[in-house]
Amino acid sequence: MNVTVTSLRPVWREVLAASYRALENSVAGVRDGEWDNATPCAEWTVTQVIQHAAGDQLAYAKMLGVGDGPAYDPFTPSGAVDGTAAELVGDAVERTGAAWAAVPDDSESVPTPLPHGELPTPVAAVMCALDAAVHAWDIAIATGRPSPLDDELAGHLLAAAREIVEPLRQWGAYGPVVEAVGGPSATPVVDDLLRYLGRVPR
């Protein structure tokens, strides 16, 4: 068992829960007139990021044996939601949360929708959490709200990201690493995570 798996095994459920709260809170904070705002995800609006984030969660749930996955391609979000965005995300988080709840604590590995396929359970879970958390940040920033991330959560997410993200850059899932500029930050680990994922901390 490698260092990353060992460090994440005791905390992966808490990391998932915190990331899901961040995503739901960011979506709940979107006001009328902000759904078409530009986001840090190139060419996607707030609504499209929400659709993408919900679809990714449903894809994880399907791989874990819950549901049929998203009814649309998360990488070509339409920008139009049936019902409300909060309902879309709430349903996705509920389904995926139930799927992870059924995974035993001593499970060694699980299937994922990532090109890597099956991954060690703690890494797979934290990568699922990473997807929710980083899109929570995208939505918050696009709508003028504070970052939903803190250094503790970001540290766990960064540990998994450094194991998995590099091969994903070629498919456009994450941009190139952004060089650090400026003075000290109040949340240096969050900033490191965002830069590693191709985002400019704000």
Automatic annotation (TrEMBL):
Signal peptide: none annotated. It holds the Pfam family MDMPI_N. Residues 17-140 form the Mycothiol-dependent maleylpyruvate isomerase metal-binding domain. NCBIfam families: maleylpyruvate isomerase family mycothiol-dependent enzyme, TIGR03086 family metal-binding protein. This is TIGR03086 family metal-binding protein. It comes from Streptosporangium jomthongense.
